[in-house]
Each structure stands twice: as C-alpha cells, then as structure tokens.
Amino acid sequence: MYTAIILDYYRHPRNYGTIRGADIMERDLNPLCGDEIEMHVKLEGSIIKEIKFSGHGCAISQAAASMLTEMVAGKTLDDARRVSRQDMLDALGIPISPARLKCALLGLKVLKTGVYRRLGAGMKEEFW
Ligand code: FES
Question: Going from the N-terminus, what domains does the chain have, and what CATH number goes with each?
C-alpha cells in the first residue's frame, strides 16, 4: 500500500536529527495517536539554510516530514509558508484517506506553525 519511495524515506529519513542553536524549534503531535514531530530550522536571513526533523510515528508521517525538509531546504520562510496541504499530498504520491490525513500533514503543520511564529504572525490555516 505504501510506495517504495515512502518506505525508503521512512527507513532512511533524510534530514533526521536536531540543530544546535536553531532559529526555529517547533513540535506538535497527532492527537489521534500521540505520534510527534519536531522541526529545527537554521536561518541565514530569511533563507532556510538547514532543516532537520525528529520524532516518531507511522511511515506516512515520518516520510512526509522528511520529504518536506527537502522541499523547503534553501528556500525562503515565505516559500515555506506557502507550501500547501495539496503540495504535501502530491509529494507523497499516494491517495491519503481522511483517517490518515493527520499523519500526512503533521510535519507540515509543525513547520508552518514555527514559520508563522518566526514571522510574527498567527497561522490561520486549517490543517485537520
Ligand atoms: Fe500516528 Fe500516523 S499513526 S502519525
């Protein structure tokens, strides 16, 4: 049911870890299962110079968070703010049932919460 790509990101997550002295540190959990994702971002001006994630959870949540770090590395905070739910679902490349939506979007929710906080703005988007 998962593609080889999702399983590969799950088993060999890119950008897994933490960043000492990160400019953005944000964590949240999927309220349905308690699985957690934490995102660390190091900035150079408004550019995402380095990004790492850590946490635990199902293959979809971990693979999505890892893919997301690659999507926004080297981009601006504003670019990260504009990554949409659909962008994340497209990157996963498989149909995501409503029951798994929180898994797929947990990393994005964490990152965007941190980015909005850094930009001094409240996040108005609905994630779940
Ligand atoms: Fe917990 Fe997917 S089952 S994040």
Answer: 4-119 (3.90.1010.10)
